[in-house]
């Protein structure tokens, strides 16, 4: 999968900008607050219809403008397609080859990316909701059916919670309707659990090796925290467990107007030598672990969909020593299109720069370096 061109109109600090990318390494150089990360964000928005940096869309439109537009030309299996994202105060729409896509779920997963940014350290340090968002986003790229099931699951949970509130206020019960809702939720939950078990298992086959390659340390692993009391996916067992949990939590759910058990409450943790990295890990270990996570995803994409996603690396080298930088470089192979941002070209290995497209960015303007970024 290749992103050939990216065109921006009224996006963040870009009034009108076109960027042509090469098939391998692309480097964006510039001081802070000049627009490097905005380019990566635009690629992300083109893929997911929303930003990875902020909640809400209003900040994506350039100040004093009424709309913004992102257009990207991608190549998949030697076939080119045009993707477009359009946003105004009251309209948000996407299209593929000029055809409007009415449901965003039908659009997401067309264009696959893996991104690492400094904010991704929150995957380890922050709340379970951040880690669930990561799981849902990445699995949805691999399996569109997962996204549909997740969407239905969330709708049923919302309906169930609202119904619990009504029953509590009216001091009445409707066990038949609640039972129907429970069945619908369990049906969707089983598929979600199945794919999460698979994804965590696939990551654990790879992540320790990559972490060891980068840092020299061994035994990094992920632990899926689901409170089901089982180690492997088993549909029948999970169905029985969920039915029992709904029964046992009935009164608590009624009092809290919420559904207190299910995949919307799940979490996962990083462990290094059986120690929880969130508690015992250093900032450097957190950074290396999350980077290993993202690089592991690339291998999963190759195995599952027989294609490589586009890799976005936002300021990835700034806090790494030379050994770790060189260890990371070998994962940026010729079959992976990569877009890297940096404030200092000297942080980037010469082996990456030699055949890269290098852009200098200043105040929302990009200029391709004629020497392709070679050190002077």
Provide an overview of this structure.
The chain is globular and about 75 Å long. Helix 4 (128-142) packs across helix 5 (144-170). 43% of the residues lie in helices and 23% in strands. The model has no long low-confidence stretch (mean pLDDT 92). The protein folds into two domains: 1-112 and 307-376, P-loop containing nucleotide triphosphate hydrolases (Rossmann fold, 3-Layer(aba) Sandwich); 124-306, RecF/RecN/SMC, N-terminal domain (Glutathione S-transferase Yfyf (Class Pi), Chain A, domain 2, Up-down Bundle). By secondary structure, it is an alpha/beta fold. Strand 6 (92-96) and strand 7 (99-101) form a beta hairpin. The chain has helices at residues 36-48, 104-107, 122-125, 128-142, 144-170, 175-204, 207-215, 235-248, 250-256, 277-280, 283-305, 322-329, 350-353, and strands spanning 2-11, 14-20, 25-29, 67-76, 79-88, 92-96, 99-101, 113-116, 220-225, 267-272, 275-276, 310-314, 338-342, 357-362, 365-368. The protein has a six-stranded antiparallel beta sheet. A six-stranded mixed beta sheet has the order 8-12-13-3-14-15, sandwiched between helices. The chain has 13 helices and 15 strands.
Q: Work out the number of β strands.
A: 15
Nearest-angstrom radius of gyration? 22 Å
Distance between the termini: 33 Å
Give the total of domains.
Answer: 2
CATH fold-level topology of the largest domain:
Glutathione S-transferase Yfyf (Class Pi), Chain A, domain 2
Strand order of the largest sheet: 2-1-4-5-6-7
- Relative strand content: 15-25%
Given helix and strand content, the structural type is alpha/beta
Q: Which spans have pLDDT < 50 for at least 5 consecutive residues? A: none
* Series of secondary-structure elements, N-terminal to C-terminal: EEEHEEEEHEHHHHHEHHEEHHEHEHEE
Q: Share of helix among residues?
A: 40-55%
**Name of the CATH architecture of the largest domain:** Up-down Bundle
Question: Could you say which overall geometry the principal axes of the C-alpha atoms support?
Answer: globular
CATH class of the largest domain: Mainly Alpha
* Largest β sheet strand count, sense and barrel closure: 6 strands, antiparallel
- Give the overall pLDDT as a whole number: 92
Number of contiguous helices:
13
Name the CATH superfamily assignment of the largest domain: RecF/RecN/SMC, N-terminal domain
